[in-house]
Automatic annotation (TrEMBL), chain A:
PANTHER family referenced in this protein's UniProt entry, alphabetically: MALTODEXTRIN IMPORT ATP-BINDING PROTEIN MSMX, MALTOSE_MALTODEXTRIN IMPORT ATP-BINDING PROTEIN MALK
InterPro entries to which the protein is assigned, alphabetical: AAA+_ATPase, ABC_transporter-like_ATP-bd, ABC_transporter-like_CS, ABC_transpr_MalK-like, ABC_transpr_MalK/UgpC-like, Mo/tungstate-bd_C_term_dom, NA-bd_OB-fold, P-loop_NTPase
Family indicated by similarity: Belongs to the ABC transporter superfamily.
NCBIfam families tied to this protein: PRK11650.1
Protein name according to UniProt: Multiple sugar transport system ATP-binding protein
GO molecular function: ABC-type maltose transporter activity; ATP binding; ATP hydrolysis activity
ABC transporter domain location: 4-234
Pfam family, one: TOBE_2
Keyword Nucleotide-binding found: yes
Organism: Paracoccus lutimaris
Key words of the record: ATP-binding, Nucleotide-binding, Sugar transport, Transport
PROSITE patterns: ABC_TRANSPORTER_1 (PS00211), ABC_TRANSPORTER_2 (PS50893)
GO cellular component terms listed in the entry, alphabetical order: ATP-binding cassette (ABC) transporter complex, substrate-binding subunit-containing; maltose transport complex
TrEMBL record, chain B:
Membrane-crossing segments per the record: 12-33, 74-94, 106-129, 141-161, 182-207, 238-259
Keywords: Cell membrane, Membrane, Transmembrane, Transmembrane helix, Transport
Coiled-coil ranges from the UniProt annotation: none
Designated name of the protein: Sorbitol ABC transporter membrane protein /mannitol ABC transporter membrane protein
Entry's localization field: Cell membrane
Ranges for domain ABC transmembrane type-1: 70-260
GO cellular component terms, A-Z: plasma membrane
Annotated membrane topology: Multi-pass membrane protein
PANTHER family linked to this entry: INNER MEMBRANE ABC TRANSPORTER PERMEASE PROTEIN YCJP, MALTOSE TRANSPORT SYSTEM PERMEASE-RELATED
Source lineage: Bacteria, Pseudomonadati, Pseudomonadota, Alphaproteobacteria, Rhodobacterales
Any single biological process term in GO: transmembrane transport
Family membership: Belongs to the binding-protein-dependent transport system permease family.
Main location: membrane
Automatic annotation (TrEMBL), chain C:
Membrane-topology descriptor: Multi-pass membrane protein
Domain of life: Bacteria
Species name: Paracoccus lutimaris
Family statement drawn from the similarity comment of this UniProt entry: Belongs to the binding-protein-dependent transport system permease family.
Domain spans labelled ABC transmembrane type-1: 69-280
PROSITE patterns from the UniProt entry: ABC_TM1
Keyword line: Cell membrane, Membrane, Transmembrane, Transmembrane helix, Transport
Record flagged with keyword Iron: no
Segments passing through the bilayer: 12-35, 73-94, 106-123, 155-178, 208-228, 259-281
A single BP term in Gene Ontology: transmembrane transport
Name by which UniProt lists this protein: Sorbitol ABC transporter membrane protein /mannitol ABC transporter membrane protein
Subcellular location field: Cell membrane
Length: 333, 274, 289
């Protein structure tokens, strides 16, 4: 079980209101990702759920029970920190055992769970080492191990991969996803990397300045962003926004065109423009194009077209893939 | 700079460095050597090879009851440091783990009390000790040394405690540790090295404190620093004996000091140089 | 961290240290200030009377006072010069690749752990004694007349002793600073063709500037209070030739029993020390996150 319901949760640090009031429901077994730009309150929200910060007002329910004033250890949640927060003076085994010891579990039961977690996480050979003697990825796994053994109602992750190098991040990302499939426990995962969000989440919560901008599955957010912020935040490279007469043609204040939804040709229809920059990735080529009519656009071209700096090309947005927004930035349907 | 230096250069640097080091260390070395000479040898002129007699050490003990000031030094330095730790650990702890807007100001103010010259309060402290019967008592001096070193102790502990990451404490809380378990299982083991370093440095500082010990003791509570200072009177000055007393006074602390090089930098610069 | 219950507990934990230091700072200082306005001599306690600024005036007209101020300044500056220059040189030498670096370090820092009276006695009797000291032995070896250091150059002799005690401190701190110098930066400068002395002037020295400042300020605080070294060797003499402010006040209080005069001297010392402390606090404060 691991259902978490937030009702009108508000948080202020002194005068500064960081979270003005959030309502959110997280269902049992869901993998929920909080994304948003730096400083938008992701960590704060996670820490409120964890009980590491007091909420200023509102209510937090975990599995139907009011947990607003429960201390962190009593909420049945496990957290994996960005810095791993392993206990440096304890061996890996002791680190993983610590929450079990705190719960007063018998030695035998503790050992069984530790062995099991170590097997799942490939840590069996490292149980007697100290955290200082492990690599970044191994430390990460110990931190996860410490969380798993408790069999919590939900896991909380705060940017757990940001201290790893790019290759390892991909590996660990997949491991965490597999772990979720295996355990089927609720996970709340904070990141500002939207690739992590898109690939891992069942449900993404986009936060902006302490407010929830939109909640939905990765594809819902991609296909039907509720507003300009979400549209610009989800998707890489970023969506192009066009205002003025071209947008008016679509009865919108602003239209959005994703780089991958533009047909690029040397001499076809569409807006004319000059290539400012061409990034060749092999399969794709990302182009930065200066268009006199609509301004600067980022588009994805075919890797085999042989496009270069200063070439003149034509850009034609796919008609069924144009996002329309009103003057308040809300999506038009 | 992990670069291979030519062998000759390394030998050159080595000779230069050892020469400088030995010149600096020479007064101590020569004192130790002289302490192993007979009184006759000691004044015969320059000689680095003593006859290795422990005569002087015996004389120092039998004539001056050396053991008494030695124990006074131990009691004063260890006692004042432990007293300071008892007061300072909670304070530094609170400032490191629940800082407020004023924490920095409080720390700076504590540091500023250390700047007060001892002579500035010589008169009142002397009179207070005289009138309350604290003069020449261990307890009075222990409390005084505690107060003198308290700012350094708070500061050192603070800089050590602050290096314990807050996330680790939060992790323990998430793992179900209450305040007591958090202190016993997480904080205490992580704080022990810092506390030990602080203890070490402050025992050294208290051991070597000489102004107040000379002012406020005569015979009863006099630690080594005051005891040795009394050797300055010209009568009864014997070189080998003086060397033996000196060696005994600095020996223990010299060895402790060698172990405290790192803490020394940190403690005496209030964390400004690490 | 920031849960409600921890806050009040924290206040309770801070209180004893703060209260103790507050009392320690205020009470004696207030008493000193009060005594400094009294005619109060322990030899004739019955004749205590209000003195106004007489004690300060007395200091101001006493030639010994100016001599002691002069001696204090010479002592502080002399020791600082020797220790900072020597400290930089020795730190750079030890930082080089040498055999037995650990032992060299230990030998060099040792004098710092020698308590002041012992340091003074060692130098006075073992090294600088006119008949039995090592310097005298050396002089005799070359057929020269031994120098009676403490009689002829009392202040200089004390500077030598105090500098010997503090040289390790300067060396150790400067060495710590030196070791945090970025090796790549040095290599970049070498690639740019900068010769050794300009690397020292433009990279090493600026990097150590902060540590040098700290050394100067902290040593100054301690050097203003030099006492045992003088007591054991020259006792301030001959005349007042090696009396510093600390020793002068000690003399007034303990040898002349002049409580009022010593208190006034103490207040003057506070003013002097505060002047230095002001700069030290700024240097240290900057480093607090
Ligand atoms: N203890 C605190 N006191 C005051 N303000 C705080 C505190 N903790 C966080 N804030 C503020 O709350 C806001 C949200 O912080 P939070 O750490 O939740 O951001 P975030 O979304 O996790 O950012 P990042 O991606 O950089 O980790 C920030 O503006 C931050 O400055
Ligand atoms: Mg964060």
């Amino acid at each position: 079980m691991g259902q978490i319901v937030l009702t009108k949760v508000r948080k202020a640090f002194g005068e500064v209101e960081v979270i003005p009031g959030i309502d959110l429901q997280i269902n049992d077994g869901e993998f929920v990702v909080f994304v948003g730009p730096s400083g938008c309150g992701k960590s704060t929200l996670l820490r409120l759920i964890a009980g590491l910060e007091d909420i200023s007002s509102g209510k937090i329910e975990i599995d139907g029970k009011d947990a607003t004033d429960a201390p962190p250890g009593k909420r049945g949640l496990a957290m994996v920190f960005q810095s791993y927060a392993l206990y440096p003076h304890m061996s890996v085994r002791k680190n993983i055992a610590f929450p079990l010891k705190m719960a007063g579990m018998s030695e035998a039961e503790q050992n069984a769970r530790i062995e099991n977690a170590a097997r799942v996480l490939n840590l069996s050979n490292y149980l007697d080492r100290r955290p200082g003697q492990l690599s970044g990825g191994q430390r990460q796994r110990v931190a996860i191990g410490r969380a798993i053994v408790r069999e919590p109602a939900a896991f909380l992750f705060d940017e757990p991969l940001s201290n790893l190098d790019a290759a390892l991040r991909v590996v660990m990302r997949q491991e965490i996803s597999e772990l979720h499939q295996k355990l089927k426990t609720t996970m709340i995962y904070v990141t500002h990397d939207q690739v992590e969000a898109m690939t891992m989440a069942d449900k993404i919560v986009v936060l902006h300045a302490g407010r929830v901008e939109q909640v939905g599955s990765p594809l819902e957010l991609y296909n039907a962003p509720a507003n300009l912020f979400v549209a610009g935040f989800i998707g890489s490279p970023k969506m192009n926004f066009i205002t003025g007469p071209e947008a008016a043609k679509y009865q919108a204040h602003t239209i959005g065109v994703r780089p991958e939804h533009v047909e690029v040709s040397k001499d076809g229809d569409g807006w004319e423009g000059k290539i400012l920059l061409a990034e060749h990735l092999g399969s794709d080529t990302f182009l930065k194009v200066a268009c006199p009519v609509v301004g600067e656009m980022t588009v994805r071209g075919n890797g085999e077209m042989g496009l270069h700096h200063n070439d003149t090309i034509r850009l034609k947005p796919r008609a069924d893939r144009i996002y329309r927004f009103d003057d308040k930035g809300l999506a038009l349907k | 700079m992990a670069r291979a230096v030519s062998k000759n250069a390394k030998i050159g640097y080595t000779i230069a460095a050892w020469t400088v080091a030995l010149v600096i260390f020479f007064p101590i070395l020569y004192t130790i050597i002289t302490s192993l000479k007979t009184e006759q040898e000691a004044i015969e002129g320059f000689n680095l090879i003593p006859s290795f007699t422990f005569e002087s050490y015996q004389t120092v003990q039998s004539q001056n009851d050396y053991f008494k000031p030695f124990m006074n030094s131990v009691i004063l330095s260890v006692g004042s440091t432990i007293l300071a730790l008892i007061v300072a650990i909670p304070a530094a702890w609170a400032m490191a783990f629940s800082p407020t807007k004023r924490t920095k100001d409080i720390l700076m103010w504590m540091l500023s009390t250390k700047m007060m010259p001892a002579v500035a309060v010589l008169v009142p402290i002397y009179l207070i000790f005289l009138r309350t019967g604290l003069m020449d008592t261990r307890i009075g001096l222990t409390v005084l040394l505690m107060l003198i070193n308290l700012p350094i102790v708070v500061w050192m502990l603070y800089t050590y405690f602050r290096e314990i990451p807050g996330e680790i404490l939060e992790a323990a809380r998430m793992d179900g540790a209450g305040l007591r378990e958090e202190i016993v299982h997480i904080l205490a083991p992580m704080a022990v090295p810092g506390i030990a370093s602080t203890l070490l440095l402050n025992v050294i500082l208290a051991w070597n404190e000489s102004f107040w010990t000379i002012q406020l003791t005569t015979t009863n509570a006099a630690p080594l620093s005051a005891f040795i200072a009394s050797f300055s009177s010209p009568q009864g000055l014997f070189w080998a004996k003086l060397s033996a007393a000196s060696t005994l006074a600095i020996g223990p602390i010299l060895i402790l000091g060698w172990f405290s090089q790192k803490q020394l930098v940190r403690g005496l610069t209030f964390g400004a140089v690490k | 961290m920031a849960t409600r219950q921890t806050q009040s507990l924290a206040r309770l934990m801070r209180a004893p240290a703060i209260i103790l230091l507050l009392v320690w700072m205020l009470v004696p200082l207030a008493m000193t200030l009060y005594y400094s306005f009294l005619n109060y001599n322990l030899l004739s306690p019955g004749q205590t009377s209000w003195a106004g600024f007489f004690n300060y005036q007395y200091f101001y007209t006493d030639p010994a006072f100016f001599e002691s101020i002069k001696n204090t300044i010479i002592l502080v500056l002399g020791v600082l010069t020797i220790t900072v220059v020597g400290g930089i040189a020795i730190a750079m030498l030890i930082d080089k690749p040498i055999f037995g670096q650990g032992i060299v370090r230990i030998l060099v820092i040792s004098p710092f752990f020698v308590m002041p009276p012992v340091a003074a006695l060692i130098w006075k009797n073992m090294i600088m004694h006119p008949s039995y000291g090592v310097f005298a032995d050396i002089a005799k070896f070359f057929g020269a007349n031994p120098v009676d250091w403490f009689a002829q150059y009392p202040l200089f002799s004390i500077i030598v002793i105090v500098a010997w005690q503090w040289l390790p401190f300067a060396t150790l701190i400067l060495l710590t600073a030196l070791q945090s110098l970025d090796g790549e930066q040095m290599e970049a400068a070498e690639m740019d063709g900068a010769p050794a002395y300009s690397r020292f002037i433009y990279l090493t020295l600026p990097h150590m500037a902060r540590a040098i400042t700290v050394v100067i300020l902290i040593q100054t605080i301690f050097l203003l209070g030099v006492y045992a070294e003088i007591l054991v060797t020259t006792n301030g003499g001959p005349g007042f030739a090696s009396t510093n402010l600390t020793f002068l006040i000690y003399r007034a209080a303990r040898l002349n029993f002049d409580i009022g005069g010593a208190a006034a001297g103490g207040i003057i010392a506070v003013v002097l020390a505060n002047f230095v402390a002001f700069f030290l606090m700024r240097a240290v404060g900057k480093n607090l996150d």
